[in-house]
Amino acid sequence: MARSKSSGRWLQEHHKDPYVQRSRAEGYRSRASYKLLEIARADRLIRKGDVVVDLGAAPGGWSQVAAELAGDTGVVVASDILPMDALADVHFIQGDFTEEAVLAEVLAALGARRADLVMSDMAPNMSGIRDVDQPRGMLLAELALEFARSTLRPGGTFLCKLFHGEGFDDYIRSLRAAFGSVATRKPDASRGRSREVYALARQFRG
Prior knowledge:
The protein has helices spanning 5-16, 18-26, 32-43, 61-70, 100-110, 130-151, 168-178; strands spanning 51-55, 75-80, 90-94, 115-120, 152-163, 179-185, 196-204. The protein has a single domain, classed as Rossmann fold. The chain contains 7 helices and 7 strands, in the order αααβαββαβαβαββ. The termini are far apart. With 206 residues, it is α/β, with parallel strands linked by helices. It has a 7-stranded mixed beta sheet, with helices on both faces.
């Protein structure tokens, strides 16, 4: 089937994207790696020995960065409904983390440890219809926050992709109720026309 003009333009832009080209040259799995790298460096997000959970991990760009920064003494547990090729020092669990059996696997991988950081770069399959996409995106963010509340250590950190629109302000308020510090980040690697922003919530009250 022939590609539409819009999808053809997207592919052309994608291949010319400097972050896509850079990720190929530097061995990262996706351009999204640079979003996390920028936030991590600016905010000292991941330290050696940290326990990190990556929700919606495939294809593994964020997990790859987390494993590098957490080092040999760290723990990275990743989950996605999509398959993901194995990564050194990353424990990957395929499935929906909101399902009891998959959640049990994630918790088993953590063991007795509580997470220092829960992060989510999840996004819905975009239809292009904002009134449909926005609620789907906010639902994923709500599910990630619910997971973070149940697994973070007191004082821990939560990083989550959001999209500006309906529900955004309410979500930020819910973060402020659970964390001592809440800020937003728009990494340079985010596409300029994207409504995405990252909520960075620190000092989980437990």
